[in-house]
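Dear colleagues,

As part of the handover before I leave the project, I'm documenting each prediction I ran so the next person doesn't have to rerun anything. This entry is a single chain, and its sequence is reproduced below.
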Amino acid sequence: MLRSESTCVVQVDLRSPDGLKGWERALTEVRGDVIPALATRVLASFEETLLERACGRRRRPASAAAPFGCPRCAAASGFRRRGRRRRRVLSRVGRLELRVAMVGCRCGHRFAPLLGALGIAPRARLAPGLARRALELCSELPYARAAAQLRREAGAAPSPRSLGRLVRRAAALIALDQPRSPLSGIEAVLVDETRVRAGPRKGPDDRGRELKIGLALRASGAARRIELLGANLAESWASLAPLLRAARDARIVVTDGEWGARALVAAALPGIPHQVCTFHVRHSLDHRLWQDGVPFARRRALAAQLGNAIEFARTATAAEQALAAALRHAERRQWRHTTRHLREVAPHLATWLRLDGSGRLAHTTSLLERTMREVNRRVDPVGVRWSLEGARAMTTLVLARRFAHPRWLRLCQDHGPTTSRVRIS
């Protein structure tokens, strides 16, 4: 247990020519100066305690087991003091101007043990707590606004360009394209895609690159109901297959019915029943009727009538009968696109009712649709087009934070057993 104590005198001079108007603003400005100064003194005191444990007192060197190790050779003893260097650290308590002590190891490596104890990487200047808060803000706001908000909260912030680099480094550590360990108790897997304006334009009608996402759902009442299996941007459906295998014990897989998603499910999760999202079927009916030349008013009424009969059926038999009636109606009218669409989705339209007659199994990707809207809110504003690397990093950050991905939880930890106490006399 390392313990240090720092005592200093703080003198605040408050002046006003006429009453105390503006006293809150004046004392708020004082707070921005006092807290970083106090933090610098406390850390200097802690650093001296750290060095005395490892190197002995000044001018009385001693070799003992240190509470830290050499970053190069992992040695835990034999350190010597090697002067000091100035380091500027940005933290949640403000900008800290430190004079960190350097120690030398027998292997010839020199390093600052205080920075390692603070969790600050070599050649970095962001404390873990500020880095964590910066990533949270970047997942909600543009980089410039995130930097401004961070400056208001902590009194110090990196530049918007530095925040972009921080997001890319964090995304590389989260790595949503890496498989997770097998998950237990999974009831359903949801797979869908959206588009993000990123990368070079392919033409005047370019709507961006496909972002493919896989989610796993546990039964209602579970401690963690939603698990993020993975995601990828501008890659094939096949690249999502290793990520879905973490939910190989699921009862059902729900997709939007696209042929690429159906092929992915067959390859990644063979033997698990496949359900086509009933909402997508309703939406697609409207589009197919438009392709067949059905007028707008009649098209909307028909899509609602056929979609309701299928989606709100109480049993699998009722859903199949409603689908058969819709198919016969389309064939009589010679609606070629509608007929082909209904035949494609027919084998996978009532799967959820066949597996569970109570109708409680997932049968839509609505949860994933809401997730994609949140991603698009941050990544796809009007008039903005991202680089492919930047969009991939930001979508990784937004998804990992939204679903508390394990690698996100381990990133930039600002929690631990360290405590503090202040005595004012």
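The chain has a mean pLDDT of 88. DSSP finds 15 helices and ten strands in the chain.

All the best with the project,
I.
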